[in-house]
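Example record for the data management plan.
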Amino acid sequence: MKLRYLICINLFLICSCIKEVEPVLPSSGDITQMDGDGVTWKYDQNRWTYSQMKSMYFWTEDIPDSTSLDFSADSFVFFESLLSDKDRFSYLSANPGYDNKVALYEGLDYYSYVDSSGDLVYRVIRVTDPLLRTQWKRGDWFVLRDGHPVRGYITGQGEFKEDSDSARPSKYYICDFTDTLYRVGDKSVGYVIYEDFDLYADFARILHSLREKGEMDELILDLRYNPGGYVEVCRKICSLIVPPQYLGQLFQIQEHNDIQNRKAAQAQGGGNGLDSLYFSDDVRTKQLNFDLDRVYVLTTRHTASASESLIHCLRPYMEVITVGSVSRGKNVGGRTISDERYRYSLHPITFQYMDAEGKLFSSDGMEPDIYAEDDLNHELGDMDESMLATALRHISGDSCGNKAHRSERSGIRYPVEYGKSSIEIKNNL
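Corresponding structural encoding:
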């Protein structure tokens, strides 16, 4: 059969050295009779997975020798057996051509917690479906019953209680606040929520809207729920924020495994094979650039990858003040590798990235310059919301902004995870 595979590159964010060794694979004839067709497709999937990982995986030298691997194993188990102990981010997902899974519920983004009884509970951080905005609001608690959210509340002892019939406001207003200008003293402050480094045009439109509203002295970029996205989008957005005198200069350095670095070096006609990305300096970028001296970025543990890259790669050129809590620590990126013949797509880490000075940031995450809690009792964009308020106080020169601290909720173990109710098969930087 003629080999046909689609390698969809979603640039994303890590490190290593690799030995170029041709993978040794067992013969398919040795295994196809073990368990009929079930083993056959697993073997084919796993064989392809192994060959791709040996070529592209950042820590390819950590992949076990093929003779020690079970190519008839469950595909998820097999994939996990290939991963380095250094890897926290590579994963396997259903190929959309085989499985188009739908979430059990839609329209609610949420935090996951563990209540005092040890049960998993959820708290709404954003209502994304307009049809649900008369029923749900930011800060609502719920659990899942038969795959459906059931509203309730948390007692003083940290236990969830169902209360589906609690009174709800008949109507309330939810806004993305993506083009808002605030007045703080004599300064005009732009506030932008950006949740996914997906489309550059969206961000450019937002900044254009802010420009039309008037002069902007400061920018607060809310990345608290942004898990990352495309490197190219991140590069272009940073080009709008960085001081204009640095346009065209080095933005980011990417290092792949030894195999890919050598291939890149050959294509480049020599050198170390590292990829160098530069700030845009085209006419449109120069027109939209805000000529700022500093930028504020709101962060949580869910600020990852491209969001962290924005902070890290801007800092050699301007002041970046982070407000919130420690970020995810994803200083790596990867690719989505899929083949229409197979049931699963690969999402391996394939490179690490550095700033223009060749520096990495810690995989433990970035400590914020100013600690502030994600305040779920206020809507995003509300000037009384803790993270935004802290940034605004700092802009105004109020010293108390520097004294904000993390806080713990009694009886609740702070977020297990952040989730979105809409499932997308997409890589995030």
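Summary line stored alongside the record: The chain has one domain: 1-97+172-406.
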